[in-house]
Amino acid sequence: MDYLQQYNEWCAKVTDGKLLSELRSMTQDQIREAFGGELSFGTAGLRGIMSPGTARMNIYTVFRATEGLARYMDSLRHKSCAITYDSRNNSREFCELAAATLASHGIRVYLTPECMPTPFLSFMVRELKCDMGVNVTASHNPSEYNGYKVYGASGCQLLDDEARKVTEFIDTVKLFEQPLPDFAEYEGNLVQYTDELLEEMYIDRVLQERLSDSPCNNVNVVYTPLNGAGHRVVPKTLHRIGVDSLCVVREQAEPNGNFPTCPYPNPEKAEALALANRLAMQTNADLVVANDPDSDRLGVAVRDGEDFRRLSGNEVGVLLADYILNNCDAASLRDSVIVKTIVSTPMAEVIAAKHNVKTVEVLTGFKYIGNVVDKLESEGRPEKFLFGFEESCGYLKGSYVRDKDGVVAAMLITEYASVLKSQGKTLADRLRELYDEYGHYLIDTVSYRFDGLSGAERKRKLLRELRSKPFDRLGNSPVTRVCDLLDQTRYDLPKSDVLRLLAADGSQLIVRPSGTEPLVKCYITVKGKESDNQARFDAIKRQIDEFFA
Questions:
Q1: Calpha distance 426→308 (Å, rounded)
Q2: Number of C-alpha atoms within 13 angstroms, CB side, residue 120?
């Protein structure tokens, strides 16, 4: 069935008035984009723009995904699922539809009464001993997006093989063959709400990851949940570690899926922290911490002289690794690991090596970090997982969940800022000390956008071209090694659409398509004299600009 046939079928069979109105007002280009394909599981489940269409997030695509998941669970005789959602528009509606769909198969559903952080979903799955979990969230994407993540019994997002099996069941679902289930029919019966006790258990478990017994009453902190799900849990946690001076950005304090002051609520981006930085200047704060809408990521800015310095995800990862490793005794360090994604800073590996701790590299996506924790737990030694992080502001200490946790990260970076302040230092001071000790790294991500069907085809064409004829130089340095993860055997990693180039001067370029946005992401790393790094970085950036722009 071509896209016009799909569109006409929707116009004839959609019963939701709002979607039907949107359908009838679509232009030809919008119809082609919305019906020219289907949403599929990427590095983080389903994710797409909210509108009518087979390639969009709406009640029908959410139903189809959940009906497929229910059939998969039936095949395994699974009987329970935990569900939560973030602050985005339609998240609650999608969440209730998913709950009703699962309940229509006799599956018991545990549902949060309001939006909650993504790591809380992982905790729910584990604590309630559920067979699976669903989180309706689009993480840090712009406001027009929503998404749908699926978790296994360990609280980890589905890995590739299991996601493919779920996809096979989703493919068997034909839309409009049955009416959408009614949430009210199952609410209070097969669908049960969680209570505040579970939230308190989660916070108590986060607090067990503290590294200092001293109250953090010497730091002034500004916090923003960016109108997201961290709005209650993070302030509670920071108050529990003794933060007396905590200012929350008023305009971003409550859940709001329109994100009116920050249309792209990504704490990796400087503009997302603009209001928080302004409040920090006004209140003479020491530290700014920010979560994305589902509170699994953490952005950080720290006072540095008369201004605030935004720390990159890699810099926060290095600081947390430094803090954690320096607070482990010899027994804790023995046979332990830190885990990072292949696109995250190699500086963490150098720091870990000083403590005789192994670094495990995994593909991009926190589910691969969670999988390492799963393996350690299956061996009876989950405590040997010390820390995991990815450069896109995702961090985890502890084995109580299997996803990145912006709550524990906010607690730990605040605690470290407090410890350093008691020594007359800031996080920026400590970072400079680490650079002096381990070398200066300049690492950044450059993204190129390819919207629509034509953009997707151009993206595929450019990636094929680069794969067939990789750059022979990075900037001014010859490339000495090319690793194509689609066919590599050198690394203990699954096959993936990732190209890695290493140059003679230590520079590195990693190129991969995003699994959640229409982007090609290029991760550039240079290491050397601080005075030379920017010029070397800029030379590589010009090179990839010419290729992708």
A1: 11
A2: 33
Residues in contact with 184: Cβ distance below 8 Å, sequence separation at least 6, in sequence order: none
Q: Distance between CA atoms of 128 and 243, rounded to whole angstroms?
A: 31
Contacts of 229 (CB under 8 A, 6+ apart): 86, 87, 115, 116, 117, 118, 255, 291, 293, 294, 295
Asked if 374 and 428 count as a contact pair (C-beta separation under 8 A), the reply is no
Confidence check: pLDDT of 358 > 80: yes
Q: Which residue pairs, CB below 8 angstroms and at least 24 apart, start in 328-335?
A: 328/355, 328/386, 332/383, 332/386, 333/357, 333/386, 335/381, 335/384
The topology (CATH level 3) of 217-309 is Alpha-D-Glucose-1,6-Bisphosphate; Chain A, domain 3 (3.40.120)
Collapsed DSSP state (helix, strand, coil) of residue 73: helix
Residue among 98, 135, 132, 140 nearest 120 (CA): 135
- CB-based burial label for 113 (10 Å; 0-12, 13-18, 19+): exposed
Q: Where are the alpha helices (DSSP H) in 361-451?
A: 366-378, 406-422, 427-438
Which amino acid appears at position 6 of this protein? Q
According to CATH, where is 3.40.120.10 located in the chain? 3-196, 217-309, 312-404
What pLDDT was estimated at residue 489?
A: 55
Positions marked active-site? 139
Render pLDDT for 504-515 as a digit per residue (tens, 0 to 9). Answer: 999 999 999 987
Q: How many DSSP H helices and E strands does the chain contain? A: 18, 21
Nearest residue to 86 (alpha-carbon basis) of 24, 18, 12, 147: 147
CATH superfamily of 312-404: Alpha-D-Glucose-1,6-Bisphosphate, subunit A, domain 3 (3.40.120.10)
177, burial (CB in 10 Å: exposed 0-12, middle 13-18, buried 19+): exposed
Among the listed residues 326, 266, 272, 190, the one whose alpha carbon sits nearest the alpha carbon of residue 447: 266
Q: Quick check: helix, strand or coil at residue 490?
A: coil
Question: Do residues 219 and 408 lie in contact, with contact meaning Cβ atoms separated by under 8 Å?
Answer: no
pTM of the prediction? 0.93
Residue 230 has pLDDT above 80, yes or no: yes
